[in-house]
Amino acid sequence: MVRYLLRRLNLFLATSLVLFIVLFIVTNQFPVEQRFALTGIQSPNAQQIAQIETDFNLNSGVFNQFIAYLQQRLSGNLGISATSQRPVADELASVLPATFELAAVSGTLALMFGLPLGILASLSRHKVTQHTIMAITLTGYSIPVFWLGLTLSLWFGVELGWLPISGRLNLLYEIEPVTGFMLVDTLLSTSPYSTSAFFDAVLHIILPAITLAVLPFTVVVRITRSAMMTIMDQTYIKAAEARGLHTSRIVLRHALPNAVIPVIKSLGLMLGSFASYAMVVEVIFAWPGIGSWLVAGIYQRDYTVIQGGVLAVALIIIFLSIMIEVLHTSINPLSRKELYASN
Fold this sequence. Notes:
There is one protein chain. The chain has 343 residues and is mainly α. It has two domains: 19-74, no CATH class; 100-342, MetI-like (MetI-like fold, Orthogonal Bundle). It is 76% helix and 0% strand. It has 15 helices and no strands. It has helices at residues 2-28, 34-39, 46-55, 62-74, 88-123, 127-142, 145-159, 182-188, 194-231, 235-242, 247-269, 271-284, 290-299, 303-331, 333-342. Helix 7 (145-159) packs parallel to helix 12 (271-284).
């Protein structure tokens, strides 16, 4: 297992290196002056120009420039935003918690409703129930996320007025940020209206979370159904049924833990699609996360923000993909068997 973890670490480092190379090449192709593309300083004075040339080795060859670029980015120097004149690293730190919160709630909803429906679709003897569930998942998988988000906003936000359609919290509430997660910060707040602020934060996250959860929800239902149908035909399940164990116990104790394994693997494979969907959802609902921040930077031609956003999103996807693969290998006996056999 140690050798496997080392190989995954090497894969992360190699993939990250390729990412930095691509970003370095793209940065040099931006239709602006190189010093501005690297730092975001629009009109640097002579001292700043000398500092930039020293930091990024601009008077040396391409290889030395890349090494300097890598050192600066790894040290946290992502430049400053040309729009806000704030360090890009600080802006990243302020928008990442909102994205993580939305992704966590959406993933929880997808698993909370997807697993039971997948189990129901695999165990139900009624064709109508099976076909209805699969039709729902197929429809959810086919609906464009931007259309779904706009439709939910129109129905529940504009026409019915039940739910807010933008932001994370009503501007009337002033909650001091602690963790960056609004649902947590409202509970930690000592403000007299912290409870009201918490429920308001819950209302704000409902529509974007449901919109973003549709894609993983459909995948979870389909993979769970397929895995459960295969597992329920296995010999050890038949033996448990012959011993008189209740169906619910067989499903929860024996079948479901094995059915979750392919679900985890499938979720790892769709992280890229999930991230792109999250960007669209954040723009639709004006959710102040990294997606809407990055899209705003693209519109404003804020090149340091574009670099910082792409770098952060790509590194998070790479890291989470490898962690999910490690988790899948650690809980899957067959993967561990293949792993040890390869050693």
